[in-house]
Amino acid sequence: MQFEIHQEGVTRLTSLRNAGGDWRWELVDDAHNVIAAGAGYASKAACREVVEALRATDSHTLVVNRA
What we know:
By secondary structure, the chain is of the alpha+beta class. The protein has one helix spanning 44-55, and strands at 2-7, 10-12, 18-20, 23-28, 34-37. The strands form two sheets. It has a three-stranded antiparallel sheet with strand order 1-4-5, with helices on one face. The chain has a two-stranded antiparallel sheet with strand order 2-3. β2 (10-12) and β3 form a beta hairpin.
């Protein structure tokens, strides 16, 4: 598996407003199936910071069910 970081394409909604352009991460398996994906981040550095935090987790990381 690997993390892939990419920037969304920018779409012009009006002459004054753009959509997209944010940075996203995806965790993909060897067949390139998306296992998990992150929300949009304003910068590549912010996106990378989240990926590094995820990489630092291990089997001791808690899984909590929220009601």
